[in-house]
Backbone:
């Protein structure tokens, strides 16, 4: 038998209202619960977060920045496979078995995120690098250098035109 906690219902209602407002008006980041609304087990309430990105472009590379506060580099995984860049992370529930305490309120969420982007064709997948500083993940995606324009010599006179026609005729023989 579970003891009724009026605060739990109030906080669940507040979380749902926040989620509805975020979805309706496009403010982020978005936390959405994947457990039923009436779930009282907050520790098991897995949440998915929309990971906002900043993407810059230069002649030599694309730079992607993502804010992932509270994560460590070990909790973030970046992969590039067949033209798709995937950024994935998961914050695990802290074990409080060592500490003899009870939470009165727990607002820091346990959540995960996954964000996938299609890479432009001019990105060198094998040379993508990632850095992590002060809760900001920075990815450097080097671009393939565009080939320099090739100058084609233009010759003057009827001899140049005849030689091109002659060469074309020999090719068909």
Residues:
């Amino acid at each position: 038998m579970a003891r009724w906690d009026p605060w739990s219902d109030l906080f669940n209602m507040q979380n749902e209202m926040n989620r509805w407002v975020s979805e309706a008006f496009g403010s982020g980041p978005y936390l959405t619960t994947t457990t039923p609304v009436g779930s009282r087990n907050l520790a098991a309430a897995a949440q998915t977060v929309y990971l906002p990105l900043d993407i810059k472009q230069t002649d030599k590379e694309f730079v992607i920045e993502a804010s992932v506060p509270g994560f460590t580099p070990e909790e973030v995984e970046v992969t590039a496979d067949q033209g798709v860049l995937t950024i994935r992370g998961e914050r695990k529930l802290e074990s409080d078995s060592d500490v003899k305490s009870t939470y009165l309120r727990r607002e820091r969420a346990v959540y995960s995120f996954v964000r996938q982007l299609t890479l432009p064709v001019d990105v060198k997948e094998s040379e993508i690098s990632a850095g992590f500083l002060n809760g900001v993940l920075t990815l450097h995606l080097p671009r393939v250098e565009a080939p320099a324009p090739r100058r084609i010599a233009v010759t003057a006179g009827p001899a140049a035109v005849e030689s091109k026609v002659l060469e074309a005729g020999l090719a068909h023989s």
In short: The first helix runs from residue 6 to 25. The two ends are 94 Å apart (CA to CA). The beta strands are 31-33, 47-49, 53-57, 61-67, 76-81, 84-90, 111-118, 129-133, 136-142. DSSP finds two helices and nine strands in the chain.
